Amino acid sequence: MSAVKTKFQTPLARAKGHGAAHSGVATWWAERVTSAALAILLPWFVASLVAAMLSSDVSQVAGWFALPVNAVGMLALVAIMFWHMKLGMQVIIEDYVHVNFWKYTLLFLNAAVCYGFMILGLICVLRLHFIDITSFGA
Amino acid sequence: MHRFSGVALYFGAVALVLWLALCAYYPAEYAKWHALAISPVGRVVLMGWTLAFFYHLASGIRHLLWDMGKGFSLNASNKAGWFIVFFTIAATAGTWCYVYQQAGQL
Questions:
Q1: Distance CA A83, CA A81 (A)
Q2: Does the predicted interface ipTM exceed a cut of 0.85?
Q3: Does A120 lie at the interface with B, CB-CB under 8 angstroms?
Q4: Which of B16, B53, B64 to mutate: most A Cβ within 10 Å?
Q5: Residue B27: which residues within 8 A CB-CB, separation 6 or more?
Q6: pTM for the full model?
Q7: Which of A46, A74, A120, B13 is the most exposed place for a label (fewest CB within 10 A)?
Q8: What are A85-112's pLDDT values in tens digits?
Q9: In this structure, what are the phi and psi dihedrals at residue B15, rounded to the nearest 5 degrees?
Q10: Following CA atoms B33, A79, B94, B60 in sequence, which dihedral angle do they give, to the nearest 10 degrees?
Q11: What single DSSP character describes residue A93?
């Protein structure tokens, strides 16, 4: 079979390692890495807190947050979870919404919701870690 | 299905943060949340979230394997699909047996 040209990349482009978009692999990797991290963090979170959450007494949960390892784990969980969600939802919006107005509106809202709730979650974890909320008349 | 379970988990994550906000800023209302969570509706929602989580996890691992170039054949993908279904049901059931056991109701 005679040689058929299958790669239309110039040698320079191949050397630079760029495809048509020039970027995007970082996003692809971020989704995979966050997936791996979440596969560990979420089961840890459920297993670790389930006993405390069974009680209707909020001090059980509050006490759990006082431990630094739990606070760090929760901060990581909140940040990574919302990052993963934002990327995932972004792909869904990009794939299924083709009317530019709605696409960009939804992409904006997705980022706003994800980062907004991420920040709220981080603040709540910090508050639970540093402040004894049971002293507020729970 | 992977996307659908992801969207379901999206709402669950928002709910998780709202729960954190409840604990951090409105601890006095915690008992009300707890009563809702224990109610039949609450249990169904929580079990549904667990189901969505394990499905998303299992089919996510299949996606990662595909990313590594493994298991593209139809046969392998179908077998993986069945494994995902069994894993999802088993993991959800296992988790909730553990929860009920912790609660002393098993």
A1: 5
A2: no
A3: yes
A4: B16
A5: A58, A62, A133, A134, A136, A137, A138
A6: 0.81
A7: A46
A8: 999 999 889 888 889 999 999 999 999 9
A9: -60, -35
A10: 130
A11: H
